[in-house]
Request: fold
Amino acid sequence: MRKTKQFLILSVCLIFIAAGAVNQGGSGFLFALPFVVAFIYVLRAFSIKTKITLIAVAAILIVPLAWKHEVNKMIYPWIGSEFIATCDWEAIQYEPGYTGYSYATLVSKGAEIDEQYVINRFEIPCDDTWELTRVFVQHPDLGTLYYPVFSIAGYEATMSGHALDDAFKSQMLVHSQIHSSSELQSEWTNSLSLLMMWVAIPIWLLTGVMSVFVK
Reply:
């Protein structure tokens, strides 16, 4: 019975560690660390052979999830797929300090841009294919904003998730399977990463209790 309980604890820890491994939020792997500690602590009760086996199993499950998020197809399954764009696009190369990244920024022609930070700009040819090569994230206002990076005519350029959503809505950019920036991430890894919100549970409970007495 004791071993069953220990294996159950290890399984729960492993799930939360996996959630941290795929978390695209600002906390990253931070809130999974207590479960790493608990996993190691519970392992002390097992034999060397069992420890090695369990650690190997954990590594086989976790490492592929944590490996190179930007190009990880388990997290971003549409990497390598092609998007269809209209002819109304140009790429603006801003100063890296202005955008926080080194890629050119894709904008629709005629869009308002901050000229003082522009290094270079060029039109996107109509017949070029947009291939999704990677996705990175930024965290404005403690949120998570996806930035898809496209390979176009041999160079890479990006746009914010907000700009991508607007492009989908206006039909300036089309993909057969996805229609919003949030769909760039696989549904199952996104759902799994929500477990990293466990730290907010005490706050929710306290808020719920207080609301009962405040009435």
User: Anything to note?
Assistant: Strands lie at 82-85, 89-94, 104-108, 118-123, 130-138, 145-152, 155-158, 173-174.
